């Protein structure tokens, strides 16, 4: 994300952030493919994976897995990240659908490897699941780093991300 972010403090102490309107056209990701479809086949490590591609200001490829605990994040993550069909590389999301309003998620971030949480990855996974008819808004996204609630009103509408905020660092710089 870039630009000004205007978070809203909720009554329960959580913070809601407008994460922008998701993009799906292959050239907006960027993803090398001629057609705009909800699910694409991606050949990785002698397997064909089904991924949904979403840009939340950064590119994401989201696949549905049976269990995030056994998902091959360490093996497939770097192969998806650097796949030739993603000329600027991509964040790889591994999404387990719990029910219509809940998922578990692991994300292999481009240039960083697997991370404990990823806000744009949570948004991309929820939106991909909604577009595929697997989920309904709002969606609780559980990662190893905590939970977020993602709400999306559909095509052309912004994604709203709600979750806890905490200080992780403070300091001073003398100039």
Topology overview:
Elements: E1 8-9, E2 15-18, E3 40-44, E4 47-55, E5 59-64, H1 73-81, E6 91-99, E7 102-109, E8 113-115, H2 119-131, E9 139-143, E10 146-152, E11 159-163
Parallel strand pairs: 5-6, 7-9
Antiparallel strand pairs: 1-2, 2-11, 3-4, 4-5, 6-7, 7-8, 9-10, 10-11
Helix count, per DSSP?
2
CATH class: Alpha Beta
Global Rg: 16 Å
Name of the CATH homologous superfamily: Diaminopimelate Epimerase, Chain A, domain 1
The secondary-structure class comes to: mainly beta
Q: Domains counted in the coordinates: how many?
A: 1
Outline the biggest β-sheet: 11 strands, mixed
Q: What is the 3D shape? A: globular
Note the gap between the termini: 28 Å
Strand-residue proportion: 35-45%
How is this structure best described in words?
The protein is mainly β and 175 residues long. The protein has one domain: Diaminopimelate Epimerase, Chain A, domain 1. It is built from 2 helices and 11 strands; from the N terminus they run E-E-E-E-E-H-E-E-E-H-E-E-E. Strands 1, 2, 3, 4, 5, 6, 7, 8, 9, 10 and 11 form an 11-stranded mixed sheet that branches. A hairpin with a 2-residue loop joins strand 9 and strand 10. The chain is globular, with a radius of gyration of 16 Å. One of its GO terms (cellular component) is cytosol. Belongs to the diaminopimelate epimerase family. One of its GO terms (molecular function) is diaminopimelate epimerase activity. Its EC number is 5.1.1.7.
